[in-house]
Design a protein that fits this description.
Blueprint: E1 28-29, H1 49-53, E2 61-62, E3 69-73, H2 80-93, E4 97-100, H3 110-117, H4 119-123, H5 128-132, E5 138-144, E6 147-154, H6 172-179, E7 184-190, H7 197-212, E8 219-224, E9 233-235, E10 238-239, H8 241-251, E11 275-278, E12 282-287, E13 290-295, H9 298-313
Bound molecules: guanosine-5'-triphosphate (GTP) and magnesium ion.
Residues 74, 76-82, 128, 132, 156-157, 225-226, 228-229, 280-282, 284, 296 line the site of guanosine-5'-triphosphate.
């Protein structure tokens, strides 16, 4: 069962909210005019030197403008890559096919080609660094019986929100993705004890600005990652949701305000037009050969996937 931020259980006043669908057809390619000539060698991000120095020149293509796009949105180190790793493992075990979309990055990006070729190996590697530093910028597709259900975008957090440059505009490619025709499921990550009060408030402002760029058909799912670091876990997968939501509201004041349900009738039983899902990608332990990763309980993935699936179906 997905945990729904609007559910009127216990002390919570949150409840679920299906949204309509809106789809356009033309595939997007960012920076079509950008020559992207230089060799990016073996950089861990796969970005070329030009792209690294000028994020506005980052070149991405989303060929399928129909399949909903799940965007893992959040600052550096909040757990976007590991959420993709954990969800991929879970979905593969459930019989889904997850594969990288090879045309997402230019062919000159040899790092991306390698990531695509070695995707399964990287996903199944229990060396945490192998997962989160080598998978840096990816578009993957989720298929069920050969049918593409959705696409998941994982990108470097600094281009979504950099605490050092809280008001920096989004790079072009982010704006192009925002403007693409795909129905989007914005999966906004938050974590406990993150940075300082001012950084968290700046992140709230960022989310509020992002909301203004969303379409009515878009959905928002807040993922409270690293839930294992909180005291809201009663037992595996059993979280004190109202307390977790309240904690996020204390940590990130007004974070849910842009998602207030303003419909005079439905707001009585559904206060916010967003979902809230606690999550744990896994456990991380220091070993001689680096940080090792053990996947988190299936219950969290089940919960997250059910929530995302309900939004994919619209
Ligand atoms: N305790 C705990 N730590 C986590 C969890 N998920 C991620 N981490 C830690 O956070 C680190 C960063 O995770 P990533 O998935 O690489 O973060 P990211 O959001 O992709 O970061 P960028 O690519 O820099 O934007 C991991 O190496 C772990 O140490 C979790 O569920 N619980
Ligand atoms: Mg990452």
């Amino acid at each position: 069962m997905p945990v729904e931020i609007n559910k009127n259980d216990e002390e919570s006043s949150f409840n679920p909210s299906p949204d309509p669908i809106g789809i356009e057809q033309t595939p997007i390619t960012t920076n079509e005019t950008n020559s992207y000539n230089d060799n990016n060698n073996e950089s861990t991000t796969g970005l070329s030197a030009i792209e690294m120095s000028d994020p506005n020149s980052i070149n991405v293509t989303i060929p399928d403008q129909n399949a909903p796009l799940i965007i893992l949105f959040g600052p550096p180190a909040c757990g976007k890559t590991m959420t993709l790793v954990r969800l991929t493992r879970f979905l593969q075990n459930q019989g889904y096919t997850i594969s990288p979309i090879k045309t997402f990055r230019p062919t000159t990006d040899t790092h991306y080609k390698k990531m695509c070729d070695n995707f399964d190996q990287m996903i199944n590697n229990n060396n945490a660094a192998a997962g989160n530093s080598r998978i840096s910028f990816m578009l993957v597709e989720v298929l069920n019986n050969g049918k593409r259900l959705c696409q998941i975008l994982e990108a470097p957090g600094e281009y979504y929100f950099d605490p050092q440059k809280p008001t920096a505009p989004f790079p072009n490619y982010v704006n192009r993705i925002i403007a693409s025709g795909n129905r989007k499921i914005w999966s906004i990550l938050v974590e406990p004890d993150w940075q300082n009060d001012i950084d968290r408030r700046n992140y709230v402002t960022r989310i509020s600005n992002l909301k203004q760029k969303m379409r009515m058909s878009d959905n928002v799912v807040f993922i409270y990652n690293k839930i294992d670091k909180t005291n809201f876990v009663r037992s595996v997968g059993d979280i004190n949701i109202p307390a977790a939501i309240q904690d996020i509201q204390y940590l990130y004041p007004n974070i849910f305000v842009p998602f207030l349900n303003r419909n005079p009738i439905t707001k009585i039983f559904k206060k916010f037009n967003c979902e809230f899902v606690p999550f744990q990608t896994g456990d991380y332990t220091e070993a001689i050969n680096g940080l090792t990763y053990q996947e988190g309980p299936d219950e969290y993935c089940n919960n997250l996937w059910n929530t995302l699936l309900s939004k994919i179906k619209g």
